[in-house]
């Protein structure tokens, strides 16, 4: 293999990933950039002449950045499952191989979804606030939340993560699992999940879990109109992307108690400014995008991204090609 330049745009890229890249060829030149919000000018400065990119930044990989890289750019891998930060069609048009890291994070993200669901339904945020401010009261009606047993759970997007969520929640004595999405999932039968139209799912579910990718079709899927369909005592969980929800509409629905609570691992923007209105709400339980953040999962993702790149540079198919 001739000398190659791989640009890793990533904060604290796991050492296993470097190991994989170096194992493929001792001749790869590795450049490493920290993933910071302000790093875009630095990325633009360093990208020229790269043969491959590990693109793990919230910045969009745009035609302008691809032009700056140059025509030798052959391969791009995200270190994520979602590809909403990459102009997929543009890369395809230019003949650049593109890959991602799906499946390996399904369990870790599903764990966080269940954590959010319990945390939101059982008022963890309000309870912790009261505990920390010395307001812990005792009373049979204090801080009462919602049961999971006997409930209907609606999963929007029954992919690998959605399925892992259902598997976990089966242990919680959920009465019914519904799902909606673009296609019938063959796995649904064994999981006992029934495919229904979105509107039906929103009306029937006590828990609505967003586990779908962000696309033009799913942008603001949860908005003022769809929130109105949800039950008053329902909980909304989002482990997909912040853009799936119109956050102003969610704020109004939570503030007005039109729905009971929300549990969000993903928001817009990330990081969310500390004075953001959603943070002020006791019934909005927010985590800082921890979905895939376990040591094992991040190592596995780094290794897949590196293998995607190595394979493409060798002219082979990536482990997880996007097209
Ligand atoms: O959010 C995480 C991912 O898409 O991998």
TrEMBL record:
D-isomer specific 2-hydroxyacid dehydrogenase NAD-binding domain ranges (all copies): 114-291
InterPro entries in alphabetical order: D-isomer_2-hydroxyacid_DH, D-isomer_2_OHA_DH_cat_dom, D-isomer_DH_CS, D-isomer_DH_NAD-bd, NAD(P)-bd_dom_sf
Superkingdom of the organism of origin: Eukaryota
Family matches, as Pfam families: 2-Hacid_dh (PF00389), 2-Hacid_dh_C (PF02826)
Domain D-isomer specific 2-hydroxyacid dehydrogenase catalytic intervals: 38-319
GO molecular function: glyoxylate reductase (NADPH) activity; hydroxypyruvate reductase (NADH) activity; NAD binding
Keywords (A to Z) from UniProt: Oxidoreductase
GO cellular component: cytosol
UniProt family annotation: Belongs to the D-isomer specific 2-hydroxyacid dehydrogenase family.
Protein name in the entry: Glyoxylate reductase/hydroxypyruvate reductase
Source organism of the structure: Diatraea saccharalis
Upper lineage: Eukaryota, Metazoa, Ecdysozoa, Arthropoda, Hexapoda
């Amino acid at each position: 293999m001739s000398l190659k330049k791989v640009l890793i745009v990533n904060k604290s890229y796991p050492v296993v990933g470097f190991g994989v890249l170096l194992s493929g060829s001792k001749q790869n030149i590795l450049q490493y950039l920290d993933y910071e919000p302000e790093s875009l000018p630095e990325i633009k400065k360093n990208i020229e002449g790269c043969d491959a990119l590990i693109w793990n930044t919230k910045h969009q990989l745009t035609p302008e950045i691809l032009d700056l890289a140059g025509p030798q750019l052959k391969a791009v891998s995200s270190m994520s499952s979602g590809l909403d930060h990459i102009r997929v069609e543009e890369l395809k048009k230019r003949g650049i191989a593109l890959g991602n890291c799906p499946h390996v994070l399904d369990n870790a993200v599903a764990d966080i979804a269940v954590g959010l669901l319990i945390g939101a339904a059982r008022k963890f945020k309000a309870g912790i606030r009261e505990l920390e401010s010395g307001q812990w009261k005792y009373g049979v009606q204090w801080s009462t939340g919602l049961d999971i047993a006997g409930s209907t759970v609606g999963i929007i997007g029954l992919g690998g993560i959605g399925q892992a969520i259902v598997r976990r929640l089966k242990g919680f004595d959920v009465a019914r699992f519904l799902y909606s999405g673009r296609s019938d999932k063959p796995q649904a039968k064994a999981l006992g999940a029934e495919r229904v139209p979105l509107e039906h799912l929103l009306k029937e579910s006590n828990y609505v879990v967003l586990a779908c990718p962000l696309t033009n079709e799913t942008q603001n899927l949860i908005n003022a109109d769809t929130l109105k369909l949800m039950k008053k005592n329902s909980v909304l969980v989002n482990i997909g992307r912040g853009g799936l929800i119109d956050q102003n509409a969610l704020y109004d629905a939570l503030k007005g108690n039109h729905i009971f609570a929300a549990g969000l691992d993903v928001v817009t923007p990330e990081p969310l400014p500390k004075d953001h209105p959603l943070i002020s709400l006791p019934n909005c339980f927010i985590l800082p995008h921890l979905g895939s953040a376990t040591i094992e999962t991040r190592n596995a993702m780094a290794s897949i991204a590196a293998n995607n790149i190595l394979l493409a540079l060798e002219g082979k198919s990536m482990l997880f090609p996007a097209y």
